[in-house]
Task: structure prediction
Amino acid sequence: MKKVALILTGIMLLFGCQNSPQIIKESWIEKPVSSWPDFALSNEISFKDTTYSDIANSFLVNTGLDTIGVSCKHLFMVFENQLGLNSIDLGNKFNYWNMYPKNHKEKAVTIKRLINTNQNEQIGQFNTLKVRDWIIFEIDGQNNQLYPLKIRFTPVKSNEIVYAVGWGMMQKDNSKPALIKLQCFKNLGDYFYIKPLETDTHPAGRSGSPVIDKNGYLVGIVSGQEGNLGVIGGIKYLTTLFDKYGIEYKNPNQ
Result:
């Protein structure tokens, strides 16, 4: 019986190892942050009578089959208050939306269209937006100067360390995006709560920043703040959008 048990244990370990996907770190993750590729972006958004420059953050995503642009949906709260928009739709006064590394507009990529536009989706307030705080874009061509982040499809675990990469309103040195170390407090699926592990992080203005894991893979988007906890939109909702809008993607775990 002992021999049979040992054989079965060996088989389980063998097949377990074969089924576990090998995690390959992004080549840049262990380099100094100053040497990382440009993936944290800012936005210039133009309407007929108003242009917003350096507002919130954005980034590109490698779906495994294509590249899309991403930012935070709660930007529409600004558009609602200042432009009178009342749904997740850019309206007929929209001119253009460019994404670029802050201070380097010459590297900009232009969006072609807002994919998850929906005239029937009310903007709402942050307590409802945090569940669905992703807007995704078809971009106009490719831009080899910008780096699209690869997706990690497994959920962030409690106490896991992750990193937000982007610009804040009160950031003293804005020559490069800041790297903010965070710890997952509780994962609720479509979003998760985090605790900043550094003081004086000044969360204002960091909305839309990509959140990456220790291997350099995208695990979320900075959404907002509730008390002492930050709110991060999770990959689960992003893939829900992929499925809803027919965006093909490659999950190496499937």
In short: The first strand starts at residue 41 and ends at 47.
